[in-house]
Amino acid sequence: MTVSRDPAAREAVLAALEGALRAPSEHNTQPWRWTLLPDRLELAVDPHRRLPFTDERGEGALLACGAALHHLRIGLAVRGWTPLVRLDREGPPQRRVAEVGWEPADTVPDDARRHAAAIERRRTDRRRFGADPVDPAVLDELARVARAFDGAVHVVAGRARRTVVEAMRDAALLQLERPGYAAELQRWTHRYVGGADGLPHGVRLSEPHLYDDLVLRWFPGGGLDQPHGGSDHEDASTLLVLSAHGHDTASVVRAGEAMSAVLLEVTAHDLAATPVTQVLEVDETRERVSEVAGGHPVVVLRVGRPVPEAPPPPRTPRRDLASVLIDRSAAPDEQAAR
Prior knowledge:
Layout: H1 7-20, E1 32-37, E2 40-45, H2 59-77, E3 81-87, E4 96-104, H3 110-119, H4 136-147, E5 152-156, H5 158-176, H6 181-189, E6 210-211, E7 214-215, E8 238-244, H7 249-268, E9 272-276, H8 283-293, E10 296-304, E11 325-327, H9 332-337
Parallel strand pairs: 1-11
Antiparallel strand pairs: 1-2, 2-4, 3-4, 5-8, 6-7, 8-10, 9-10
Helix pairs in contact: 1-2, 2-3, 2-7, 3-7, 4-7, 5-8
């Protein structure tokens, strides 16, 4: 079904791409680049938006592209189209990682409806969470939606949690010694006023945050205050590790889809989440997480209940569609006439 011949298909694809702009990415770099052809979309990593000192292996960019791909799937599904996705198994990250076709669908999956409603509400929340723990049945649902994309969710508690938390602390110290890291962090947390990417003042906490045993990456100079009510030791968040099926490009992109599904499922249950990748960006600490979680860990997720009556954190900005899309969808005869 070509978008050059079918206005309804073109409208659905462009609307789905608009929704994909809301996908999460490390430091809100938005490292995706789409190309619209007459019969398909191609997705690639934008090499200019990688984080070479933070994300040396490039997996963070692949995760973000996977999240954008999942958001696109949802947008197509709720508009009556079945996405036809093919992932590239190998190859440099700056090359194409996926292509997506589409065909009319008879039904809309329940997960797609629920997740579509959550896309605009989802936020990364770095603030303190509430004192009530997450229902185990909800954790089972998070594992279910991840499995649909070959992702494995591990709840880390007890000794495993201590191992992961200690690794997080060590990673924060080791990464500060990495040349170029501090400058890169400064670049993406101090964008120009009115910018469409990075982490603006309003989404960064105003002071360092310690939640019982858990220390998160510190983004200095923020203006977001902790919610009223509760205290640090009352944060009852659950720590999860999401692992990919393998180490290859396609497996990590697929894990990005699983991450997106988990974060949207969290939002659908009126919970909050903080994706954490710092501990996986240092070889030594990543190996320690792998030993307790198994598989190939790609992201740690802090999931909990928001403090009652706390307003949602501000939305992070996004680039517009024209900034991420190359439109080559004209039919060959139309191209020849130009």
